[in-house]
TrEMBL record:
<dbReference type="InterPro" id="IPR035069">
    <property type="entry name" value="TTHA1013/TTHA0281-like"/>
</dbReference>
<protein>
    <submittedName>
        <fullName>Uncharacterized protein family UPF0150</fullName>
    </submittedName>
</protein>
<dbReference type="InterPro" id="IPR051404">
    <property type="entry name" value="TA_system_antitoxin"/>
</dbReference>
Length: 72
């Protein structure tokens, strides 16, 4: 079992979920569905991907922060 980051954002009338460590995304009608669909997509990826592909795609350090930007 390993933990990954899930970024979930509203897009239109649904939600998009992204795992930046592996660059896998999914979607759902609500936050819970988007999260569950991302978990399923990640499990399928790890079940079927070649170990070399996993190693090439895996980003071991992900930093999520907020920044201030002057607008206008």
């Amino acid at each position: 079992m390993q933990q990954f980051t899930a970024i979930i954002e509203r897009e239109g009338s649904g939600y998009v979920s992204l795992c930046p460590e592996i660059d896998i995304a999914s979607q759902g009608c609500n936050i819970e569905e988007a999260r569950n669909n991302l978990v399923e997509a990640l499990e399928l990826f790890f079940e079927t991907a070649d170990p070399k592909e996993i190693q090439n795609r895996l980003h071991s350090e992900i930093f999520i922060t907020r920044v201030e930007v002057n607008i206008g």
